[in-house]
Amino acid sequence: KKWRNENHIIGITDGKFMDWASDQGGGGAIDLVMHVQKVDFKAAIVWLSQQSLPHVEASQPRPQPLQLPQ
């Protein structure tokens, strides 16, 4: 899924984003806010801290049983 506006076409995969409109990417919410809002690290942290974001548990891959070669 991609999010679009007049300046960005953002795709997010495995916690990393890619802005196809500017050919730039990064990892995580802080980088995304810095990129889209054109702010520094501190301003991105302040902005994120003021948002009402839902808590989402990180998904963990299910452990697979160890299979030894025969």
Which labels suit this protein?
elongated; 27% helix; 70 residues; four-stranded antiparallel beta sheet; alpha+beta
Describe what this molecule looks like in 3D.
The protein has 70 residues and is of the alpha+beta class. 27% of the residues lie in helices and 23% in strands. It has helices at 28-37, 41-49; strands at 2-4, 9-13, 16-19, 24-27. A four-stranded antiparallel β-sheet has the order 1-2-3-4, covered by helices on one side. The radius of gyration is 17 Å and the shape is elongated. The N and C termini lie far apart (42 Å). The mean pLDDT is 90.
SSE layout and pairings?
Layout: E1 2-4, E2 9-13, E3 16-19, E4 24-27, H1 28-37, H2 41-49
Antiparallel strand pairs: 1-2, 2-3, 3-4
Helix pairs in contact: 1-2
Question: Briefly, what is this?
Answer:
This protein has 70 residues and is of the alpha+beta class.
| Rounded mean pLDDT score | 90
State the helix count: 2
Provide the gyration radius in Å: 17 Å
Order of helices and strands: EEEEHH
Content of β-strand: 15-25%
What is the CA-CA span between the terminal residues? 42 Å
Secondary-structure class: alpha+beta
Low-confidence stretches: none
